[in-house]
Fold each of these.
Amino acid sequence: MSKEKVKAPQIKDERGFHNLALILMTLLAIYCVIPFILMLSTSLSSEQALAKGGYSFWPREFSLAAYDYMWAKRETIGRCYLMTIIVTVVGTAGNLLLTSLFAYPLSRKDFKPRNFFAFLLFFTVLFNGGLTASYIVWTRLFFVKNTIWALILPGSLMGAMSVLMVRNYFNANIPYAIIEAALLDGASDMKIYTSIMVPLSKPVMTTIGLFAALGYWNNWTNGLYYITETHLYTIQVYLKKLMDNIAFLKSGNSVAESAALAYRTMPTEGARMAIAIIAILPILCVYPFIQKELVKGMVVGGVKG
Amino acid sequence: MSELSLENLVKIYPFTSTRRLFGRKQARDMLAREQAMPYTTNEGVIAVQQFSLEIKNGEFVVLLGPSGSGKTSVLRMVAGLESVSDGTIRMDGKVINDTPPPDRNMAMIFQNYSLYPGFTVYDNLAYPLRNLHMPRAQVDEKVRAVAGLLEMTPLLDRRPSELSGGQQQRTAIGRALVRDPGIFLMDEPMSNQDPALKARLREELKRIHRKLGTTILYVTHDQTDALRLGDRIVLMQDGMIVQAGTPQELYQHPRNLYCATFLGTPQMNVFRGIPVQEGKIRLMGRDISLPESIKKAAGGMAAVTVGIRPVHFVPDPRGIEGTVDYTESIEAECHLHLKHGNEAFTVVVPKTSGRPYSRGETVRVMPETDRIHLFHPQTGIRLD
């Protein structure tokens, strides 16, 4: 028998691709982190140094003036913080409740008009009334202007994509036989929803909840459109107003001596950045703990669905 | 315990809506596939038709058939999970066609048991009772009684993921038992288990049935489950009953060729036989005598289909000649796969016969006269 050389199967060398991917991802990560570093560095720099040398990755002249200014405003900032927390908690709870309540019937095969409702839902992804119509509806029909509901209801309470994500999760991860078993065991639809569907969909509910919470925490547009009372400002609205005021003082339109003095003495750039840091601080603290759940929920809802 | 009566049940599944499919070809293919099903109407595919069955108190009835034969559709209609297109379902004489599933006094065990994953065994057992708003003490009493009966008391705090296959099955049975239902419905509850566990589960199920005497309607495609469990087997094909009877009836007197070949391992051998004179047929060059009961059945026919089970051959020096193609040694038996010209057939001989068989060897066997089955060559119906 002649000996034949058998060629060993070649494993494709993917190291090059991995290295390229690594470089690209590193660049992307740096790109995302740079603004945050600039923000932190600016908030810790003195105003004069900023005026002279502009932004840098390291504080030019270390100063806590911006944070002193924030400390002086602690009462207002504290109130804004409280309002933000209330809006985020109530809004997120409402969002989770409405999203899952809408998604559950859409996932039930025996719910005949589910296609109709799915169409209505999807329609809102493609088309909406626009800002003016929404404003009129919320203020003239629901009278939410200058109430806490203005910060909770418009726009953020339920997202079509979240509903579709939860519905997909229900369909892909909860066997329909479990629902049928519960039906035969005499459970009502509401009981099935509360005792089976919700407890079994923790990953997707966590993801949706986190998205909603982030959305509420960072939302400043509702405050801008519907809120004029300062005691209802959230931290983001306060930041926005502060920036507007600084821009106004800086623009030179204000000729009053006191205003000019105020502008010269207040740490404008630093204050902006400091309040932004304060605003994102809670998210920065919580994120490392929820990152795993967030990714899990996104993968489950997005890929498997 | 309850009685169940199914009269002329029909289930028609509407054709899949093709409006949502973007590709025309895809829509056309899907419709063509559905229209090619054995029975269709303008409305859709007929999954079950002319299905009539009486199930007595405490009877263990098995619906047997291949995938797509309509057995699960029947079970789901009985459970109330599918609407009935036509026909009547009576339970203890009362029509329950439109009764909602929870009010039918039935319990169902699903293919994967469908235990509630987040619940403990205790909560799984208590769930149906809590839905009835039963007082907590009574729930506890009933759950513990059922757990005791199924020898599951030490497992009450475990979750389904921490249970073995057998324990999961017992939990599912317990959840069904706790409500004291009139009828148990079981949808292939052992199909995912390995053979050893399956055998144990079968014994356990049989023991529970003997102990409680509940009426059970069991769906399976596994003939071993059907033959070992059922008091009565209902064999289905294309949504219709082919034959209903005791396992012995179906095995010994199959109504048609489908039934004859579906039941029994290895499968029944099927040959073409030529009637040569009254009471005899020619089979692979040998004239074989027919049993008294079917002597006249083949009269006047040019050819008949002859069915002989592999276990019903005996070695005979004057018998049919076959060359060993290959052999299989299974437990105490040896399966000889023989060839005679273009015909291939299987013969089971006990290993105690003492001699090994090798490939190419010639073997002579003769069918046991009273175990020969004759079928009509075109319709496949048994000739008696």
Note: The interface with chain B takes residues 175, 177-178, 180-188, 191, 195-196, 199-200 of chain A (CB under 8 Å).
Amino acid sequence: MMRRLLPHPLISAGLFLVWLLASRSAAPGPALVGLVVALLGGQALALLAPGRLRLRRPALALRLAGHVAADILRSNLAVARILLLRRPDRRAGFLHIRLTLRDPQALALLAIILTATPGTAWVDHDAAEGWLLLHVLDLSGGEDWERIIRERYEAPLLEIFA
Amino acid sequence: MTGHLDSLPAWAAWPAAALLLAGAGLTLAGSLGLLRLRGFYERLHAPTLGTSAGMACVLLASMLVFSVLQSRLVIHELLIGLLMLVTTPVTLMLIARAAIHRDRQEGADVPGQASPERREEKSKE
Amino acid sequence: MSLAVLAWSLLLAQLMLGLAFCCAAWRVLRGPRAQDRVVGLDTLSINGMLLLLTFGLRTGTDLYFEAALVIALLGFVSTAALAKFLMRGEVIE
């Protein structure tokens, strides 16, 4: 019963919150409409995509979100420095990384993480073999990008969407 | 024109000013990158400054000022933040894929279909 | 004192965002290739949206927020459509 009413509880909760934000009040009227929107939205998504979004490790997901926020802030400053100082030894380039991640939702999340972080851009992905083509603004810093992406982002995503 | 700000206490005005300057500065740095960087794939990184920390700082300043002025929690700016967070990666990925698709068709010097192994096999043939 | 600081930094932030807007516009006009123009246009819409938010702070009305939200949505849709066009040569297949 619960499952038929709320096929995607997380999505429905998110829709409800977005509705409250958009109507800018938590009065009973907007809240009721928001409830209807959230329920219908969940149903509509269940009709479109049969797969269920499930998060296995909420604590790990929160920690990943914290890491990502810190990384975004740090690489913002790093990229701003690159753009303003114009170091001559900066070297940009493409990078091939083989991912073990296969779940489409997890891949979408990884794409959002990598693109939202300034300095790295997701260019192409080969779904059959898992090769990811990445463009990095500064390769000269000596960071091991492959290891960073594997351990910092891919490993937690593998556990969350296991 | 800024008369409505008169009732803003100092403890809110200073952080709001700092957040505004930081956000606008980061966005300007990113947009300067559009002018300075050579090559399309490098310029692809330029807008992400404005859409991540730049936007976050301006939105936080707006939330802070309006919350204090109206003495209630004004957080509808989160809506824009959420929207940008989800949509920017999608647009940038679409542009990047379109660009590399076009470059490959024109035979420019870009990596081929994302598998180095397959590329080596091809070069051996 | 602190209000003067806020008013001045508001002005400075608007000038910086305006300059950023001009940089993006220059990239749209200059190119050289279509994908450069699309990236410029995307940046243009984001800078315009942030500029509108600072106008909202200056005037103290919520109206600018609505406009910023609409621009954010339209910017996404138009950039996605343009990227699709670059990829295939047509928007609707």
Note: The mean pLDDT of chain C is 86.
Amino acid sequence: MPRRTKVVVAQVAIVLALLLTWELGVRSGVIDSFFFPAPSTLVGRIKEWMSTADFWTDVGTTLVETILSFIVGIAIGTALGIWLGLNPFTADVVQPFIKIFNAIPRILLGPIFVIWFGLGLTSKVALGVTLVLFVAFFNTFQGVREVNPVVLANARLLRASKSSLLRHVYLPSATTWILSSLRVSVGMAVMGAVVAEYLGSSAGLGHLIAQAEGVLDATGVFAGIIVLSAFVVALDAVVDRAEKRLLVWRPPAAHET
Amino acid sequence: MEGQPALAVDLHDVLIRFGDFTAVKSMNLQVGDTEFVAVVGPTGCGKSTILNTVTGLLKPASGDVRIFGRPLTGLNDQSGYMLQQEGLLPWKTAQDNVGLGLVFQGKSVEQARAQARPWLAKVGLKGFEERYPHQLSGGQRKRVAMAQTLIMEPRIVLMDEPFSALDVHTRRLMHRILLDLWQAERRSLIFITHDLDEAITLADRVVVMSAGPASRMVGEVKITLPRPRDVSALQTTDEFVALYREIWSLLGSEVEKSYATQN
């Protein structure tokens, strides 16, 4: 058996064993189904949800919020990173402020955003953006600063103008850094959206979980968590493909895990 | 050469300082149009400083820099510079790297590619157009870098120990390619190296610098070997050995001096 197959078999075995123990534990009464509903119950609940239109509205809402926070966060973070990366003086001046902002537990901004922007889409995106922005910013900043000096000198000797340098040297260099942090950024965007929904909203996966929690419905909470995980895994796969396409120029050893 | 207005590079009594440190003192270097000049000297003698001066990146504290008879102000727009380490963009293919300077000039990517492809062929890399730098060997990357510099058709080519990181055989191959290209389209070329064999094989004239700081020119030797030269057979000829001895008699004592100051 090839190694790869062995790994997959082992992984499937672990999951099956865990689910089986759980299921049997609940059925025999060893595990309290009020706190840990059986996997079969959870599957039933998710199936039930999937047959309702409301559930898909929730998924759609969270998806839109995630994508918007992601795009806006990356755009602002990248612009800021390039600007500060190219202006060491400004970077030195604002560095402590950025550190302070980054030190704020962003989740706590959720309530203030709900007050400012209401229960709708904007407050969710705002929270997601504050989370994504810093990841994108720090990586772009690093990317711009760590441009290989020989590459830079060579481009200058080929008479590259400032805008050419930005387009052909700084941006591609930063892109590699942004891409390598993309997975973290996507996770952050989802987290921002869901937490903001949880704090106050009328739709979305976070809202779904919050509602279940309100009536002490552990099945609903667990089912919500599973749906969310599947959601993130799906987004991750999309990111993975984007990354592979954009980084074809890289030596394979560098991003093979 | 004197009296002719066509000197490509004319450094007259040039003094270069970095703060209190005098890198180069009373440097005189004349390079004729289409002449191939190699500059040799002990490490740290300011060989690269000379190239940076010719490019206009460094301003001499005193002395005169003339390019084709005109005093150099700002950056030299007649020169192309090939660095010791090749600075290829890792995210661009070989052909896009070769055409990079053209794109910087405002040409479209398609135009640049169309011009880059024949240049890749000239340096023996036909079929490697779509390769990224990491997919090329060290010698192939050097050839891309060479094409990248020469495609801009500079009248003065500056090379700063471009082949020093390569193994002997690859270096020989590079010498052959460089000589072929230079033979086909004669340009002025200043080639910095610490390798005497390389200097004699390639150049019309070898200039020897003294040990730094405050290094200056201690002598020059005309390389009378006929052209076109056979890179692989050249080194064993009596004429080559005689030239080697002559240059070493100038350089050897300077190398010892540079060791003495370092230890």
Note: Chain A touches chain B at residues 148, 150-155, 157-161, 164, 168-169, 172-173, 175-176, 248-251 (CB under 8 Å).
Amino acid sequence: MGDRMGKNQKYLVNRLYLFCALLFLFGVVMIFLAETGIVQGRRAVIPGLFLILALFLAGGYRWLYRPYRMLNEQFSRFADGYISLEEMSRTDVLLSPEMERSLKQLDSMNNATRNLDLSKRQAQYRALQNQINPHFLYNTLEGIRSEALIAGLDNLADMTELLATFFRYTISRNETLVTLEEELDNCYTYFKIQQYRFGSRIHLEVLKDEEEWNTILHCRIPKLTLQPILENSIIHGIELKMGEGTVTIEITRTESRLLIRVRDDGVGMDHRTLEELNARLDSKEEEYRESHSREEGGVALVNVNNRVHLLFGEEYGMHVYSMENTGTTVELSIPAVREQRKP
Amino acid sequence: MYGGSVMKTEILRLERVTYRRDNTTILNNLSMSMMKGDIMGLQPLETYGLEELLSVLTENPPLYFGYVYYMEQCVNAWNAARHERNRISVIGTRSTLVGDLDILTNVFVLRPGFRQERISEKMLVRQLQPFLDDLGIRLDPKTTVDRLSPYERVLVELLRAVVAGHHLIIFREISSVISEEELKDLHRLLRHYARRGFSFLYISMHFEEIMQVCSSTAIYHDARIDMIIEEDFRGKSLPRSYYQDYYNHVSRRLRRCRPDKEGEEVFSAELLSDDLKGFAFSVREGECLVIQNMETRIYNRLVEVLTRENDVSRVRFAFRGKQEDGIRRRKMAVLREEPGKTMIFEDLSVLDNLCITLDHKLPSIWVRKKARDSVREEYVREFGTDICSRHTMDLTRIERLRLIYMRVWLEKPDVVFLLQPFKGADVEERYQIFKLQEMLLKKGMAVVILAVSMGDSLAIADRVIRLASVRERLDVKEYRYEDFPKLPGYLPWVDVYDENMEKEPVL
């Protein structure tokens, strides 16, 4: 009974009905007392009535106005893209049962669209994987490598080997979480491939916390997290810069978190672009992300951030710091885990 | 937990903090983190939202979105506010100690969590002594706080934070109340405590100052952290893209305006009081003299002596060779620290504020509306906007500064004393103050800047006098324009003089 009562009070409209009914009852009692003349000559009654009225108003503030404001703020957060539809419908108070049903309906429609989109992308990915046929790809690359070695083209042979290693990690392995060591190895491979293009113009430094390094290397992070950030730093930071540039990867582990900072001393970005990029990283509007990501840069960062949010929750994620002509730092915060987690 | 090695502790993390007040977004998507033992700088390019940031750090107000972690614990989140204060101390330009009470009471007894009902002073003195020894200072624990010098006050506040076990201590613009020597000593103490696991957030308007002590610097811009500049990653100064206009303007001035050594000497002062005896200086028409005091005690004495009316026993003034009392004759104007806050009469209209010192020049100013209108037009001619129709309270910080400097400009005294003119000013305000000082100099006034922190004063200076106390005696060092590159390299703008000294002046 109490539970049902509590459930009914979840809706502001029910609270409003109850409040109006009590107010009406109070009015009727007041009129009755005034008509019958009971209050005449009894001084204590009037302060008592004022006290009851004050309690009514305080109750109205606590049970109606405050929850209404909270609900309003929640809507505002949703409209600004800070929270998802699912989070919004998880509030303690709602306007009416119809509104709750509508929100659930909207959420399920949204999920259906998202699932459809996800399965479409998954199907495309599988089709691509089948088309590529990894064994055929690796055999071909191995063939090119042998030909290059025979012809004395050592650079070409090394490059082909690196490319095969890169694809083996990217395409063939299906784990969600990998060790940081594997992810760093993939970064080195990618970097070496890029060095064939940029020569001595690009440098990579990994800052090691010697005491913790062994533990850090065994921490698990989502697969293909570091390489897209590194790629972003090279393509959008260093490539556009005159002269040499350095990308520094710094990894720190605290009691609860693994903090990965990838910084470059490239061209950086202006204040407005940075603001937009960080807003995109934190926005919950899937459509917004989709429509913008195809046209603008930073798709990789948004994807990595989405995966981190999905796997570990909203408290973790990515933030970008940047300054024009100084460089960019991408900071990724994820929980420090060693065991494989199921998403 | 993995293994037995010492793990790093994240002392502070702000994760995508968005803070709103009265439906206005103040902090927007702000993220930053600090590790245990870090001394991190924070340079605000403008002060908007800085108060709120400190409030988010210390008081945990309800957030619109985001998370705050202190000592790896979530202390505030948008969906679960706790509203308890964090154990973080803020040490700023104003004292937070109780002035009438002694050091011992401030440090121990007023501390939240102090539960003793019977206080044994002897025992508290014994407990305090190791902390004082650690700081390497000699202070009588029974001294009343009001009797402490500004630097001693800062040290006692630091001591209080350390004793209370506050792991994060925030210093806010501390160089505007303590001298360069004291600042160096404070930096030494910060490094010492950082090694012992305390973390410091060092807020300063000057990148050069931050660089002296911090291992990384967060650039605060538009109520967000734009960039964290690491020690190994930064150049000699703040990337110029953030203050390009200001830099260009100063560079142009340095190349164009060499000090006119032939100008008439308009003001001279000879100090007679015991502690400043023997110090005399003079200044020429259109010249800017900066008097930097290496000790706050000297600064306070100098300000007291120079700005006091008719104090012939301690100072002798001469205007264009004649000895007289400058303040009474309006030949001398004094702009106090943070004049936009301290020198505006909020109850008067903007126009009345502008005209308030013109009575000796135009005795009929309050009767003749035409005269007041011409003052208003003069302001519009100088700055291009009319602020006189607005309420004084609605003026922006920059408009307030313009109002005060324009008041002096209209008054046209022979000499203007500016007390720490760049104190508390962000980059945009500093640029404006620089231009306003230029305006006074162009009108032929002599400008004397009195400061403990050089700030941006070097950008406008034609001459610098540095005062220090060496073995109880006043040590005076004068630097002429051509000697500026010899000033310590960590002072703001010295590098620009270095660059410009090589080039030929553009006439």
Note: The CA atoms of residues 459 and 493 of chain B lie 6 Å apart.
